[in-house]
Write a structure and sequence with these properties.
The chain is α+β, with helices and mostly antiparallel strands. The protein contains 9 helices and 7 strands; from the N terminus they run ααααβααββαββααββ. A hairpin with a 3-residue loop joins strand 4 and strand 5.
Length: about 350
């Protein structure tokens, strides 16, 4: 029942209940008076009767008013007080409580809206905390990844200055190493800059409809020399006659696939290296699988491969030149396309990276 109806009924009850009570009391007292006297009462007895009648009327009025006030306060004032206390706790930063709202009136609706607001504030606070932790981890990882090549460059420069590199061959070797380390730093900074822009949604995406089968074959032609140098055989698997058109940003998708294939090549440790791209489609999505026969990923590491700066093996990643941002960038790009990305792997067998792209 709404508060308006409840107050209206309480006001009506304050009039009707005392009136009904006094009529009943008057009838009872009249019967008692006539039965006791056995005659018509005189003027004095009538005045006494009227005084008692007025007193009882006031008593009933006070009791009725007190009872209705208590009932109304319990159904209105008490919930409002709970809302006030909840507002105070939220203003103090305490979001770890629950506001129960059992009523179906306006206050109950207000309490439910208040509880929904508390939940959203708590979710926002948890998300802010998560972003803050992520930011600290990101800064720590950046510091670590930049400090290592800087220290190496300083060491080689000092070697040149101190005359350790005392032959042209040694100096060329030192300079080449300095150049390689500086190039790695530049690449890390570029990837970090791109990751930050993707995270802030500052990278523009221009979508067009492309046939992914044709797109993949064209993309792989650009990698032919790299595959020959690494002695990798490549295949594209797709169902003949199937339509693999999807809405993609040509430039950003190329960046994502490049990162996936580069990551696969770095971790191929078999003599017979093979990379395959498999396409499948349904009415809503085109699914792309990029499968290698590399060393695979440990089960406990698999859920984290798309986290920024995550490395399953720090020493091995340093040796292969991994920045820890490649697959994190892939995840951002695919999610900007409205798709999903995930990995499946078995150690010693290989790894498959999947992503989906919308057809419409």
């Amino acid at each position: 029942m709404s508060i308006r109806k409840r107050l209206l009924l309480s006001n009506v009850a304050m009039v009707i209940v005392p009136a009904a009570a006094i009529i009943i009391i008057e009838g009872v007292l009249g019967l008692l008076l006539f039965s006791l006297l056995g005659r018509e009462p005189d003027a004095t007895e009538v005045r006494t009767f009227m005084t008692v009648r007025l007193f009882l009327f006031l008593l009933v009025l006070v009791i009725t008013n007190s009872l209705l006030t208590y009932l109304v306060s319990r159904s209105i004032i008490h919930p409002v007080e709970k809302l006030r206390q909840s507002a105070r706790r939220i203003s103090e930063g305490d979001l770890d409580f629950r506001l129960d709202a059992a009523g179906k009136d306006e206050i109950g609706e207000l309490a439910r809206a208040f509880e929904e607001m508390r939940k959203k504030l708590k979710e926002a606070d948890e998300l802010r905390t998560k972003y803050e932790e992520s930011r600290r981890e990101l800064l720590a990882s950046i510091s670590h990844d930049l400090k290592t090549p800087v220290t190496s460059i300083k060491g080689y420069v000092e070697g040149i200055q101190d005359g350790v590199a005392n032959t042209p061959e040694k100096r060329n070797k030192y300079l080449q190493t300095i150049y390689t380390k500086a190039y790695d730093m530049e690449r890390l900074i570029d990837e970090l800059f791109l990751y930050s822009k993707l995270d802030l949604k500052q990278v523009p995406f221009t979508f067009e409809r492309l046939d992914l089968y044709i797109y993949m074959r064209s993309f792989l032609k650009e990698w032919e020399m790299d595959f020959k140098q690494e002695d990798i055989t490549v295949s594209v698997q797709a169902e003949e006659g199937e339509n693999y058109e999807a809405l993609v940003d040509r430039k950003q998708l190329k960046r994502a696939i490049t990162n996936i294939i580069s990551n696969s090549i770095k971790h191929m440790n078999k003599q017979d290296k093979h990379l395959s791209i498999c396409l499948s489609a349904d009415p809503q999505w085109v699914t792309v699988e990029i499968r290698d026969n590399g060393r695979g990923i440990a089960g406990e590491a698999l859920p984290h491969v798309f986290d920024h700066f995550y490395r399953e093996d720090e020493a091995r990643s340093s040796a292969t030149g991994g920045s820890g941002l490649g697959l994190a960038i892939v995840k951002h790009i695919i999610e900007e396309h409205g798709g999903q990305v995930w990995a499946e792997s078995e150690q010693g067998i290989g790894t498959s990276l999947f992503f989906t792209l919308k057809r419409k």
